[in-house]
Amino acid sequence: MNILIVAPYILLPEYPEFSKNTTGLGIMVETISRAVASDSEMSVQIYTNAISSRKNINGYEIRSHTVKDLILHVKIRYIDDFFHNLIKPSGTKSRLKSAYYALNTSYLEYTIKQWADIVHFHDLGYLSVHGMDICEKLGKKYVLTLHTLTKDSPFGTDETRKWESIYVPRSISNGCAVSVISTEMKEKLLDWYDVDKPDLIKVILNTSDLRTDSVNSENIRVKYSIPTDSKLIICAGLLSKRKNQIQLVRAFKKLSTEAQKHIYILLIGADSDDRVYLENLNNLLADDFIGKHIQKTGYVSHNHISSYYAAADANAVVSAKEPFGLPYVEAMHMGIPTLTFTDIESTKDVCFPETSICVSERNDQSLAEGICAVIRKKWDKDDIKRKAKDFSTDAMGRKYVDCYKELGSNI
């Protein structure tokens, strides 16, 4: 079965064109693609926005997506869109982007028509929306995987909220599948939208396959001058308002002076483009004592982050909005407990008494109390790791393959 996976980007650090976006979505697109491609019945190609030559990686193929490909396969109606977008009254960057999308859509239509049995779209964006329209026109079945919901999110846009309200019920009505990454996400979709075939909303949890062959926890503590007898909490994710690292800093400041002396926090992640948020965060870290105990590491690749988990005593997921939270599972695989909030969407799927401390109130004092609780409790690493077995790459891959086959049987 030919599976075309369509995503805005994929994270492959060894290739410059696929290393610009370092978010969890890029990691999961790669992990899912590799998991599906491991099934001998599946032939997998990846289609992204990036300009790239054809590549065979990890059992799947990055489809050739060059300027030549776009030009050779453009159709007349898309040429009209191309020139219309070039001359429309907007900024140069916006005009060029829209013109590129016109060519890209034409090549995507060619690819879907000529090669795909099933198309798998990741999140709602220009590629997926136009791709789903193309599939409906050609009579192709598809899966739409939502890595986040926008209806109740302050981080969504009017456009993505509109797309969600249109394409979720329409996809299911057309006999296609919508997959989500937590049980609560499915419950919300059923509550919000008129879905006539609820069984076509599939809950397929994310997972992680951290590399542990080169773990060196001692080097991490030495690098950031963290005493061996101190407690280390890590918080991984793009430094942004959504990931909410700033509240973790404020909560640390609520701790007693004695507790602060023995706790260190590493904020692992690249800076976002939210200058106001970063300025506020940096102002808090400017204090000499706070800056010593809470440090920003910058971007850490997926291949090296396991050393940070190995060095840590606890993991923190304190996002203002978090549909899943990959660090939950990464920490579990390393036997590390997680501090989080009860209102995060995936709590009922990934949080257990033997793996997590869940804070019910979102104020700084409650989070400070959670910090104390997670570092004082005696955790059993083996118990935590046993829970991680429920989140295997193989199991995730099988669920996506089963979804493809279910749709394929109805073609």
What does this protein structure show overall?
With 411 residues, the chain is of the alpha/beta class. The protein has two domains: 2-207 and 393-408, Rossmann fold (3-Layer(aba) Sandwich); 217-388, Rossmann fold (3-Layer(aba) Sandwich), CATH 3.40.50.2000. 46% of the residues lie in helices and 15% in strands. The protein has 18 helices and 14 strands. The relative contact order is 0.12.
Keywords:
single chain, alpha/beta, Rossmann fold, 2 domains, globular
List the helices and strands and how they pair.
Layout: E1 2-6, H1 24-37, E2 43-47, E3 55-57, E4 60-62, H2 67-72, H3 76-87, H4 92-115, E5 118-122, H5 126-138, E6 141-146, H6 158-173, E7 177-180, H7 183-192, E8 201-203, H8 217-223, E9 231-236, H9 245-254, H10 257-261, E10 263-268, H11 275-285, H12 288-293, E11 294-298, H13 305-311, E12 314-317, H14 326-333, E13 338-341, H15 347-350, E14 356-359, H16 364-376, H17 381-388, H18 393-408
Parallel strand pairs: 1-2, 1-5, 2-4, 5-6, 6-7, 7-8, 9-10, 9-12, 10-11, 12-13, 13-14
Antiparallel strand pairs: 3-4
Helix pairs in contact: 1-18, 3-4, 4-5, 8-13, 9-11, 9-16, 14-17
